[in-house]
């Protein structure tokens, strides 16, 4: 079995902004949080979990179809948040999707939610053994995960998150399938396939 997930890749400006926040976070929380390595930052589209290696190509084919239906995505108004807000398990930057810039070729608004729901439905027809998180999807970049032994005692008041400015607007241009390889020192993500999103709005 191989442990896999699907994600949107980020650009270097976004990565650098995330790392600036991480450096500040490390100066406040010295031992309570496992911080995400810069090369591992991404927007998760869907966590698959363990799949049979022979099913990998079926997943890749479905991702290719999604990429052909999805325009380059414009995200804005990033907000640094604890998740959940009380006794959090992780710290992330949450974004909203811009309806103005994300258009289909005919000029209509792109319906991200429906495309994703259809993808999950098609995937479950191919890989019937998969189970998916039913919580509402949020565009987010996870910066760090609170260590399990620190969840109850973490003092979230030490960092006033709403005072942090997230200036970068993001254009997501690629969607990828990754294998997550777990090591004692942390995960390594191996790219298995990448597809460009469709530049349906005339270029950015």
Overview of this structure, please?
The chain starts with a strand and ends in an 8-residue tail after the last strand. The protein has three helices and nine strands. The chain has a single domain (2-196), classed as Alpha-Beta Complex (Cyclic Phosphodiesterase, Chain: A). The relative contact order is 0.27. The strands form two sheets. It has a five-stranded antiparallel sheet with strand order 2-6-5-4-7, with helices on one face. The chain has a four-stranded antiparallel sheet with strand order 3-1-8-9. Helix 2 packs antiparallel against helix 3. It has helices at 12-28, 56-69, 112-126, and strands spanning 2-8, 33-35, 43-51, 73-83, 90-97, 139-146, 170-172, 174-183, 186-196.
What proportion strand? 25-35%
The oligomerization state is: single chain
Q: How many structural domains?
A: 1
Percent in helix = 10-25%
Sketch the topology as an H/E string, one letter per element.
EHEEHEEHEEEE
Mean pLDDT: 89
Provide a count of the helices: 3
Q: State the total count of DSSP E strands.
A: 9
CATH-assigned fold name: Cyclic Phosphodiesterase, Chain: A
Sequence of strands across the biggest β-sheet: 2-6-5-4-7
CATH superfamily assignment? Cyclic phosphodiesterase
Question: What is the annotated CATH architecture?
Answer: Alpha-Beta Complex
The major pleated sheet works out as: 5 strands, antiparallel
Radius of gyration: 18 Å
What form results from the Cα inertia axes? globular
pLDDT < 50 runs, ≥5 residues:
none
Structural class: alpha+beta
Terminal residue distance:
39 Å
